[in-house]
Amino acid sequence: MQMKQVEVLLVEDDPADVELTQIAFERAQLLVPLNVVNNGEEALAYLRQEGEYANAVKPELILLDLNLPGINGRQVLETIKSDEDLKAIPVIILTTSQSDEEILRSYNLGASAYVTKPVGMEGFMKVVHSLDCFWFTVVKFPPHGSSSFGYK
d(Cα 27, Cα 46) in Å, to the nearest integer? Predict the structure, then answer.
């Protein structure tokens, strides 16, 4: 199948999970730009292209951990989905919580999907394969420059 180049923002504070995700993307041979920020404040600055992220490319897909220091993932999700320039970006929650309450709250805040973080490389590979099959192969994203993503 033809691979579409999709800009991805990973919002994750655990260096081990960042590394697992990066390795899983590499092993799956996904030629997808995976940009990483480590907390909610950085995520919002990145998405708003502020400060050191002034030249950041707005992502077409966000992988968001809920349990972040400072501004947590729920607050980031709520901010994204209430911002006219950002709300169309799909947000996949990628977190350790399996709580029905967290799952419901995430969907109510506008999450596009909720994935419980797998344990180990094999589990991460399955998640990345699923991302590839659906989000990077099947899903159609607006073209870069589309006003629905708030591009300038």
Answer: 26
Tens digit of pLDDT for each residue in 26-70? 888 777 889 999 999 999 999 999 999 999 999 999 999 999 999
The verdict on residue 89 lying in a domain is yes
CA 152/CA 137 separation, integer angstroms: 26
Give the CATH number, domain containing residue 110: 3.40.50.2300
Token code pair at residue 39: 């907390």
Please count the other Cβ atoms lying within 10 Å of the Cβ belonging to residue 147: 11
Phi, psi of 136 (to 5 degrees): -100, -10
Closest CA to 53 of 74, 39, 71, 63: 39
What residues form DSSP beta bridges with 9? 35, 62
Is 151 contained in some domain?
no
Which tokens belong to 87?
A: 């709300």
pTM of the model: 0.86
Can you give the residue range of the structural domain that contains 139? 8-144
Closest by Cα among 86, 78, 83 to 107: 78
